[in-house]
Amino acid sequence: MRVVYRGLAVIGLVVAAAATLVVVLPSGPDEVAAGPVTAPPAAPSSSGPAPSTAPSTAPSSGAPPSASPLPTAEATPSPGSSLAPGYTAMEALYADPRVPKLTGRIKRMSLASPARKIVKDRRSGLAVPDLPKPWKSYGAAPFTTKQVLPKTRAGVRGIFVTCPLPIMRQKSPRNTALLAARWTLNHHPKGSRITWIASQPVKRGWMLVYRVKYGKHQSRAAVVVIDGGMSKPGLAFVTVPDSQRKQWRDISRVVAGVRVLG
C-alpha cells in the first residue's frame, strides 16, 4: 500500500506542475483576454463636470432618464440674414419686421409714358428706359446695367440697375417681387423699413413701388420683375433718396418703361 500511496503522490505532483506551467506561459500575439463587454462612458456635458469612472457605492436618488428627446428651440430667421434651417423663402419674408404684409388695400398707380430711348440688358432679357439728365450711365458691376444720379453731400444718390433675378424665383410673380423688394434693403441704409405705395401686375411679371424709411430720411423705390425668356427672370430696381426728391417722378418712368427685350 505504501507503494501505491507514493505513486499517487508522484502523479499529483506532476499534475500540479503542469497546471503551473499553463498559468505562467505567455499568451500569443493574436490572443485577447476575454472579459465582460461594457458600454463606453457617456460623453461629458459641455456645461457640467466630466463624469467619474470610479464605481459609486452610494445609491442613486435621481429618476431614470427619460426616453423621449428634450425639446429644442425653433430657429427664427433674423432680418436681412440668410434663411434659417427649415424655413421657406416666403416664411422668412413674413417673419421680417422690416417688410409689412402686402394687402389688397395697396392700390395701383397711373404710369407715365414709356421713354423713347432704351438701355438693353441682354443677360436679363429686358429693355429699360435710358433716363435723361441728371442721370448718367455708370460702371454696372455687380449689376448688368446701371444709371446713377450725382452724389449728394450725404454721400447717397439715386441708382437704377438691372440684373438677372438675385433671389429665389417663386411660383407667383407677386411673391417673387416681394422677395426682390426685401432684397433691395441690402442697398439702403441700416435700419431701413418698407411702406408699400403701389402693387400691380405687368406683362409677364409684377411691379412694386414703396417708401423706404431710415431714421429721419426716406427714399422712394420700385422693383419690376419680368420673365425675359432667360434662365432667370430679369429684375429692374430703382431708388432715389429724399435729398434728390425732384427725381422721384422718374420712378414712374422706370416702372412704365421696363419690358421684354424684343
Written account of the structure:
The chain starts with a helix and ends with a strand. With about 260 residues, the chain is α+β, with helices and mostly antiparallel strands. The protein has helices at about 1-25, 90-95, 175-185, 250-255, and strands spanning about 120, 125-130, 135, 145-150, 160-165, 195-200, 205-215, 215-225, 235-240, 260. The protein has four helices and ten strands, in the order ααβββββαββββαβ. The protein is about 20% helix and about 25% strand. The chain has a domain at about 105-260: Mog1/PsbP, alpha/beta/alpha sandwich (Protein Transport Mog1p, Chain A), CATH 3.40.1000. The radius of gyration is 38 Å and the shape is globular. The strands form two sheets. The chain has a seven-stranded antiparallel sheet with strand order 3-4-5-9-8-7-6. A three-stranded antiparallel sheet has the order 1-2-10.
List the helices and strands and how they pair.
Blueprint (H helix, E strand, L loop, with lengths): L1 H23 L64 H6 L23 E4 L4 E4 L6 E2 L7 E4 L10 E6 L8 H11 L9 E10 L2 E10 L2 E10 L7 E8 L7 H9 L1 E2 L2
Antiparallel strand pairs: 1-2, 2-10, 3-4, 4-5, 5-9, 6-7, 7-8, 8-9
